[in-house]
Amino acid sequence: MIDKDLEEISSKELISKDDLWGYGAEHQMAHYLKRKFFDHPEIHVLNNLRFKCVTDDGDYAQIDHLIITPYCFIVVETKNWVGGMKYDEDGNCWYLSKEDDEWHTSKESPIFQAKRQSEALRRVLQNNKEILRKKFLFLQGGFQNYPVHFLVALYGESNVVKPEKSCKYDGMVLKAEVIPDKILEIYEKYKNSDTVKNFVKDALLKNDTLWILPEEDIKKTVSFLKEIHCPQFFYRKIELESVKCKCGGLLSFALNRETKKWEAICKACGLVKPFSFKCSKCKKPLKLFETGWPRKKLAFCKYCDEYRIVKE
């Protein structure tokens, strides 16, 4: 069952080449999942979930694909690495560049990404367990011990290179086209086990009620996640906004090559000062970055998740 489709990009002029490349892989992965599970009554698919973490630092978790079943969650991180990918027993990852045919260290391991997103998902659900889960034997249901699996899907012609010795990540990093079968394998392993005996015992020992999510709780969980979803900026229509100097002139912005920091420049009065503007809502510092082609500058508040294209 597909409970959330992948959105269409609304602001194509703002998306980076890497993000567009990744979107293509996520679009194909969503297609594979829809083809496999569109009519499955117990497997729910949500594509592209982005929500605020249970912290006060303004961080967001981004899940490419989330699978919800009565027995477990499965987080899928999709990568479009053309040359190939290899990993080691510690979860470190490398990609094979087609430009020089050499292995390069990934800036961030997809394995660690998927693991971190899984942890963020558990925290946000556990933090709202009273509204999402029933009570069982007078115990409040929760997600603290609910199984959360994670998989890395490699899209395209690239291959997965395993370490020489088997490790715990084997079977977690797979070609995108076989991910639906792996999801079904995980689901059926739980479904075919002695669920009532095992889950009730676990509930009593761990004080976290049944792992099994009844249909009512699944519906509430799906609705909750869709409600807190905050799409990335290129899925939205971003407004254009100009910033004026005290003299009335229009401010432009440039990156200082020496300090590597943004500066505000007024050609009318000659003012040059560091970029130090604050959000009109939360009064916290704004940040600035360039994206898209032709290049555009976006000012944003990570706490309010608000973006504006800067008119210069």
Structure report:
There is one protein chain. With 312 residues, this protein is of the alpha/beta class. The protein folds into 2 domains: 2-234, no CATH class; 238-311, no CATH class. Helix content is 26%, strand content 29%. The chain has helices at 17-37, 110-126, 129-132, 179-191, 195-206, 215-228; strands at residues 2-4, 44-52, 60-68, 73-79, 84-87, 93-96, 103-105, 135-136, 139-140, 148-154, 159-161, 173-175, 240-242, 251-255, 262-266, 272-274, 287-291, 296-301, 306-311. The strands form 5 sheets. The chain has a 6-stranded mixed β-sheet with strand order 1-2-3-4-10-12, sandwiched between helices. Strands 7-6-5-11 form a 4-stranded mixed β-sheet, with no helix packed on it. It has a 4-stranded mixed β-sheet with strand order 13-19-18-17, with no helix packed on it. Strand 3 (60-68) and strand 4 form a beta hairpin. The chain is globular, with a radius of gyration of 23 Å. 27% of the residues are buried. The model has no long low-confidence stretch (mean pLDDT 88).
